[in-house]
Write the structure tokens for this entry.
Amino acid sequence: MKFPGGMDLNSMMRQAQEMQANMQKAQNELAATEVEGMAIPAGSIVSVGLGSANHDERYWEHAEEFDILRPPRQHIAFAWGPHMCLGLHLARMETRVALTRVLDRLPNLRLDPDAEQPFITGMVFRAPNALPVVWD
């Protein structure tokens, strides 16, 4: 989903994914399996690090860099497969509409240079407590 100037909403969602982790029961309940060399006993509860996957250097070149012009690639900000978020299309549309309206109405919107750096918290759902901004 592109914005003016080539900005990619998917890049923003991948980098700042709100939901970071999820607990799942191992799909193969009858037999043990192995993932990346780690044994997973049958029926185990597994903590899935969704946020970590979106920063995997094996898949994302310069994964920790925020690059709003990065070419789009599949990410899992909304999970994937049978556990994919049913509201992902609505969330993308609402985000696009909200950001477009805010940027249209508040020219030169930017982080407040005199405020403290935003601090993002949370283990499962992550967000800053505040995001001080200024505009012209």
Q: What stands out?
A: Residues 21 and 49 are 5 Å apart (CA to CA). The chain has one domain: 4-105. The radius of gyration is 18 Å. The longest helix spans residues 88-105.
